[in-house]
Amino acid sequence: MRRLLLLFILFIVSFSAFGEIRTDDNYRYAKRGYFGTANVSYILWDDYNHPIGIGAEVINGYAFNKWFMLGAGVGANMMSYKGYENECVVEAVIPLFVHARFNILDRRVTPFFSLGVGGGILVDNYNSGVASALYLDPKLGVAVHLKNGGTIDFGVSRLFSGVIWLGSYNGIKFGVSYTW
């Protein structure tokens, strides 16, 4: 897992260096005002014999300048695995969170760091409606600002979502987002 993270960081550094060489200032993106983000992700869960999951989030907020954005989001992170008696169990953590994002450079291609913090609800075959204690989603990625004013983001995050008395739902998220 450390090798994967190291390769991703090298990818971010090389991609942002490419963005610095190309100083194409014909792009525009919201420097201040409302923003909306839609995100889809592929999740490698830590527990339950490493099942694969999917996730989706919608975030709305305010961009204070071209470097800092703050908003609120809701999403669903799902997984499926074989239960104790080989029955199929489908679980979802539905997070409600505050989202902060920091762009590193003022370039068309820039690395960024974002953080989602909040709580959520566990929905599954057995424990529907159980409140989660914590939802923490720090993300490191690369943003590509498009000429139409939108942004496409590629990122990886370490998801932490603990559920009271039921354990933790932690994993690695690989996501793609579009921000308008």
Task: Give a structural overview.
With 180 residues, the protein is mainly beta. The protein is 11% helix and 62% strand. Strand 3 (68-82) and strand 4 (88-103) form a beta hairpin. The radius of gyration is 17 Å and the shape is elongated. The chain starts with a helix and ends with a strand. The model is unreliable at 13-24 (pLDDT under 50).
Summarize the structure.
By secondary structure, the protein is mainly beta.
Defining traits:
single chain; 180 residues; mainly beta; 8-stranded antiparallel β-barrel; 11% helix
Detail the topology: elements first, then pairings.
Layout: H1 2-21, E1 33-45, E2 52-63, E3 68-82, E4 88-103, E5 109-123, E6 130-145, E7 151-163, E8 167-168, E9 171-179
Antiparallel strand pairs: 1-2, 1-9, 2-3, 3-4, 4-5, 5-6, 6-7, 7-8, 7-9
